[in-house]
Amino acid sequence: MASGTRELTVDLGERSYPIYIGTGLIAQLGEKFAERGFPVKSPILLVTDSAVEGLYASAVEESLRARGYTVARAVVPSGEASKSLEMLDTLVEQALKAGLDRKSTVIALGGGVVGDLAGFVAASYMRGVRFVQIPTTILAHDSSVGGKVAVNHRLAKNIIGAFHQPEFVLYDLDTLASLPMREVRAGLSEVIKHGLIWNAEFVAWCDDNAERLLGLDPDALGYALYEGCKVKSIVVSRDERENDLRAILNLGHTIGHALEAVAGYGELLHGEAIAIGMVGSARLAGRFGYAADIEETTERIFRKFGLPVRIPESCPTDEIMSAMLHDKKFSEGNMVFVVPTAIGSVEIRRDVPSAWVTDIVNGLREGK
Amino acid sequence: MASGTRELTVDLGERSYPIYIGTGLIAQLGEKFAERGFPVKSPILLVTDSAVEGLYASAVEESLRARGYTVARAVVPSGEASKSLEMLDTLVEQALKAGLDRKSTVIALGGGVVGDLAGFVAASYMRGVRFVQIPTTILAHDSSVGGKVAVNHRLAKNIIGAFHQPEFVLYDLDTLASLPMREVRAGLSEVIKHGLIWNAEFVAWCDDNAERLLGLDPDALGYALYEGCKVKSIVVSRDERENDLRAILNLGHTIGHALEAVAGYGELLHGEAIAIGMVGSARLAGRFGYAADIEETTERIFRKFGLPVRIPESCPTDEIMSAMLHDKKFSEGNMVFVVPTAIGSVEIRRDVPSAWVTDIVNGLREGK
Ligand SMILES: NC(=O)c1ccc[n+]([C@@H]2O[C@H](COP(=O)([O-])OP(=O)(O)OC[C@H]3O[C@@H](n4cnc5c(N)ncnc54)[C@H](O)[C@@H]3O)[C@@H](O)[C@H]2O)c1
Ligand SMILES: NC(=O)c1ccc[n+]([C@@H]2O[C@H](COP(=O)([O-])OP(=O)(O)OC[C@H]3O[C@@H](n4cnc5c(N)ncnc54)[C@H](O)[C@@H]3O)[C@@H](O)[C@H]2O)c1
Ligand SMILES: [Zn+2]
Ligand SMILES: [Zn+2]
Question: Whose CA is closest to B137, among B254, B64, B72, B55?
């Protein structure tokens, strides 16, 4: 491992796995495969997207080939639409043609889209083969912990999937240099979320280090991704199959998901939508009588990172409300909110009056 | 439970589940759901096929509705072609429209096709919901144990799937009355296979009770299905994720699968193809010097059950051989055979000379 590499273990009993975070890691991928005894006889499928392929696929392949591995490359179009059953079908075809067997590995090289899609291929091909993730976005720190993999159905996001833990995650910070700035900010929104639900000190650190993070300083970024993954990892370890605790990870997501749906997928990035949602949750905290600094701090920090904190004009309140009510059928009849009780801690509330929510959504407008 | 109901536990730690085998069981389904605390608020998806729907779907629904459950019915065309990603897409759409949530159940009412397909829906919808099987074929005793669920890809059978254990299996023998006689015989082939790999006494019992079994005598059938499920259950309990021991379940399948592929899927039923395959394996046993009565007994018993014991003219030896060689890539380069060492026990051989196989395939012809 290069000096400065951080290592974190996601603790899930016999499905535990390490996340390596640092620079220059792709060059060491083949070594990692060999150390862990991945069989050279079994071909590897490298799944990536059209934006990432030209940048990093060859380096990944070279690293593996240098250790004697056979790699087939599968490229999907960049974007959420690739998380589909049609793409699963195509990738399975490529896996078959490349001769993948039960001891083969599927590698995801890309953001959360490639991670979720390739992860579901790994979960279902021959009823499950090895999976390795090489995240190339900041947001993907989130999907690199917890083993949730899925594709979308035209009627619902992430509705067809599995829990399938990777063998390991290799987070090479060098790949983040090419990420569009808007994606950087949106990814950091989810990093900050992990602070807000669990770790006040880390929130303060992000606040103090905004400039280094936005400048992609490897040491600051490595530390932030490590802390973000750690919070998620603690939560997931205690609740692998998503019962109760894991729900706290949805801070800002009740409003955020509704905004994404109403704005039209792609208009608002996920990280942007949940930044607005987290400001909304902070206002809910105020209604419940929790300290007023929650709202002030939450809003200030997201502004500092250049993230939106107000609902766009294109999203009328009634549509947002009905999108949220539509969502509720997935949680047995109640709107569920994650509400901060202080910076660094939250609680789950199923008793939020919908009038409060309407008020808050109305209030979260430019100029208010 | 009705008197005469047999109960077997498939022992898989926290994923253990019971199989109930007997008559009049569908009427008790609602009661079973209630006893086990399946929530009435969460809708149920009943998946069945076009041949089974008109016969038993209403009885299943009535039994559940009498206990307050909401059931949506989803019907797929009868036949192997329904095990597809397209059908998964359609069923997920129906599940969404019916409002299925994380606490919902998917029920498979039908043979192995419906079981495998509905099981994969249950495994992947919202990353996994409850699954209950109501097998209506004899062959499905096999798929009711082990949790293997899957759909096909146009390039390979059962290639996209999961391990997803049911909550329980309700084997109502009354449903078997409508099964075409050819399906009865083919299903019994797999029952006898379970005897041949594990239990010589049970093979002798099948031999003595062929007439009762073919006449669908409920007591004989209940016993045979119980014993068949028990053998499979012992094997999978010791090897849930299919490593080594589980391979013994493939007695007759190396040749059998090749015959199915060459004859064209649907020409030979699976149970018919493996009957021929088991006669082939018995001949292999002879080559390895095991007792000659293996071959004699194997062939006699399948003849008695009206199953084919010779390879059809439409399957040339070279095509069978190449189908088998094509299969081998899934097991790292060696043709794998399950070879009987006596009636009731087998061993796995990776050292079978392909010349022996060619000989045996050539020899398994009408008139020889
Ligand atoms: N499984 C989970 O637990 C989990 C958690 C959070 C999000 N997700 C999923 O993740 C997805 C969003 O992830 P994302 O934001 O990473 O999206 P993404 O994968 O679409 O990546 C964002 C964009 O950046 C491009 N890109 C990626 N890496 C790049 C790089 N290094 N340089 C230049 N361009 C690059 C991509 O092509 C894409 O256009 C969603 O589908 C979401 O459902 C899953
Ligand atoms: N998951 C496993 O472990 C496992 C094991 C063995 C086989 N399988 C799968 O099972 C499938 C074969 O199972 P099958 O033989 O039950 O096939 P099937 O489900 O196609 O049923 C055979 C035929 O009988 C009809 N039928 C079913 N029940 C009936 C009834 N009670 N009355 C009248 N008609 C009825 C069906 O419509 C169909 O036409 C294959 O797809 C195979 O891959 C899975
Ligand atoms: Zn999120
Ligand atoms: Zn079989």
Answer: B55
The answer to whether the CB of B49 is under 6 A from ligand 2 is yes
Residue B119 pLDDT > 90: yes
Is A368 part of the contact surface with chain B (CB cutoff 8 Å)? no
Q: Which helix (H) or strand (E) holds B20?
A: strand B17-22
Q: Kindly give the interhelix angle for B354-363 and B270-287, rounded to the nearest 10 degrees.
A: 120
ipTM greater than 0.95: no
C-alpha to C-alpha distances, A270 to A150, A182, A198, B73, nearest whole angstrom: 16, 11, 21, 36
Blockwise average pLDDT, block size 10, chain A, 368 residues: 82 94 98 98 98 98 98 97 98 97 97 98 98 98 96 94 98 98 98 98 98 97 98 88 82 94 86 98 96 94 98 95 73 78 95 93 89
Active-site residue A148, yes or no? yes
Residue A349 tokens, joined = 């509330």
Residues written for chain A: 368
Q: Does B161 touch chain A (CB under 8 A)?
A: yes
Q: Which of A96, A242, A332 has the CB atom closest to B101's CB atom?
A: A332
Percent of chain B with pLDDT over 90: 87
> Beta strand B6-10 with B17-22: parallel, antiparallel or unpaired?
antiparallel
CA angle A351, A352, A353 (to 5 degrees): 110
Per residue in B63-112, pLDDT tens?
Answer: 999 999 999 999 999 999 999 999 999 999 999 999 999 999 999 999 99
Are B190 and B44 in contact by the 8 Å Cβ rule? The answer is no
Span B355-366, average pLDDT: 94
List b or e across B23-38, with b for residues whose CB sees 16 or more CB atoms inside 10 angstroms.
Answer: bebbbbbbebbeeeeb
Chain A positions in Cβ-Cβ contact with residue B93 (cut-off 8 Å): 153, 155
Ordered by where they begin, the domains of chain B are 6-178 (3.40.50.1970), 181-363 (1.20.1090.10)
Task: Report how far apart, in Å, the C-alpha atoms of A115 and of each of A46, A102, A197, A308 are.
Answer: 11, 20, 24, 26
Residue A353 CB burial class (10 angstroms; 0-12, 13-18, ≥19): exposed
Q: Best residue in A101, A106, A127, A242 to probe B by mutation, most B CBs within 10 Å?
A: A127
The model carries a pTM of 0.95
Ligand 2 mean position, distance from CA B179 (Å): 10
Among partner residues B125, B148, B159, which is closest to A125 by beta-carbon distance?
B159
The answer for A 334-353 residues in CB contact with B (under 8 A) is none
